[in-house]
Amino acid sequence: MLRTLVALQTKKQNSITQRNKKNLKIKKKLFVLFFAISILIMNNYSFGQELKNKLIITDTISSQILNSNRIIDIYLPTNYFNTNDTYPIQVIIGHKQRSSMYYEISNYLGQPYHIENGALHTVPETIVIGFRTLNGGRELHYKNDWASINKFISQELITYISNKYRTNGYKTLIGHSLGGGFVLKSMFSNSSDFNAYYCTAPTESKYLVTLIRESFLQNDITSINKKKLILACGKMDKEIPFVENEELINELLKKNQKNFSFKYIELDNANHHSIYPATITDALLFMFEDWGFELTESQTSNATELFVKHYTNLSSKTGISIIPPENDFYLLTYLLFTRNNTDEKILVLKKCKEYYPKAQMADAYLARTYYMIDDFENATIFNNKALQLNARNKFAMETRDMLKKKSNYIL
Asked: What are the residue ranges of helices labelled H in 64-177?
């Protein structure tokens, strides 16, 4: 009889254990499903026409410097309307097709890709601005009033964008051909405060070589903060002889200064038309090489500390106060989930709330995380906070429905 009771008890206990394990697996699947869905919503992978119309805008600036109205194309990052993040500005000189192409590649690289490997994304999300030039860009030539264009971009355009959109102060300037020559003139004329520059097949080589020599002699570009330059040219270029661009490269290679970082690309099969699209990715990786955050397996338990420290170091390198992006906190949360580190995940989300008090998704993810570990009291507290910030937060509404099924749910 005793053996029978013991056997029945053991069988019952095993049944309970199996049921608990099954329930835990279901919870995990639910969390992964809901988290994945919310990330998809956050990143707007259902890239509809209505959203596209909000992210890509054509605007006009009435310039006092140029005494005319100038058209600009504004490309906002995918997550602009879903977070409280601030973004770098990238200004592309030239026609709309050039800025549109640049935006598509930059935006693609700014999205998360295989987060479980430890890297949140390849480059940061940015605001891309296309400045449409007149007369095929001839207004950028050194014999014309290019300095006024440069002044307009540095003063009026940047100010206009910074006042209207959330920016963090980091700026890049990009141009091809006449626009490429303009980028170099802007950088070495001591009249531009961009952080990084990218030019392809630049014109006016002889003028630029002289300008570069004078600039370094006068110590014009050795500011406190590091400036980066990437120059690309094709050996099949029939419009700008390769030898002219090579002379520019050789002159720049002579310069070895602490706050000047230079990289060049020479492509054997690229011509004047193909060199720009062929090197955009390389340029982005170079200009934002200090921005990427990667977390190895061994660093998992210190994720919060290392993440914050990364942006402290980045701020020091750029001379700009750059705080960790809200969206990156969520990506890091998902990475920690894949590594089964709940405690660190909670720390990351709470740190996010310190930077972004209105971050509704941080509260929502905290609620679901506490639900996962059967801490329904904290799950309720944080879920209510999420719903207070946004009563229509679908992720929080689903968590509320899950909590209602628990006897200790607090209304």
From this structure: 96-109, 146-151, 158-164
| 203 shares a domain with 107 | yes
Q: Which of 308, 306, 290 is nearest to 298 (CA)?
A: 306
pLDDT in tens, 184-206: 999 887 767 899 999 999 998 88
pTM for the structure as a whole:
0.85
Backbone angles phi, psi at 169, to 5 degrees: 100, -15
- 226: CATH: 3.40.50.1820
Instruction: Judge contact between 330 and 120, C-beta under 8 A.
Output: no
CA nearest to 123, candidates 225, 198, 202: 198
353 contacts: CB under 8 Å, gap ≥ 6: 359, 362, 363
Q: Which domain holds residue 173?
A: 49-287
DSSP 8-state class, residue 152: I
Range of lowest pLDDT (4-8, 136-140, 277-281)? 4-8
Distance CA 323, CA 86 (A): 8
* Residue 95 dihedral angles phi and psi, to the nearest 5°: -75, 165
What are 270-296's pLDDT values in tens digits? Answer: 999 999 999 999 999 999 999 999 999
Residue 324 per-residue DSSP state: P
**Given this model, what pLDDT does residue 35 score?**
55
Of 255, 287, 319, the domain-final residue? 287
Residue 54: inside a domain: yes
81 and 34 co-located in one domain: no
Q: Is residue 15 in some structural domain?
A: no
Three-state DSSP string of 235-282: CCCCCCCHHHHHHHHHHHHCCCCCCEEEEEEEECCCCCCCHHHHHHHH
Tell the burial category of 303 from Cβ atoms under 10 Å away from its Cβ (0-12, 13-18, 19+): buried
**What's the CATH code of the domain at 317?**
1.25.40.10
The sign of the CA dihedral 39, 42, 46, 47 is negative
Asked if residue 250 has pLDDT above 50, the reply is yes
Domain termination residue (choose one: 235, 253, 287): 287
pLDDT value of position 260: 86
Lowest mean pLDDT among 86-90, 142-146, 209-213, 359-363: 142-146
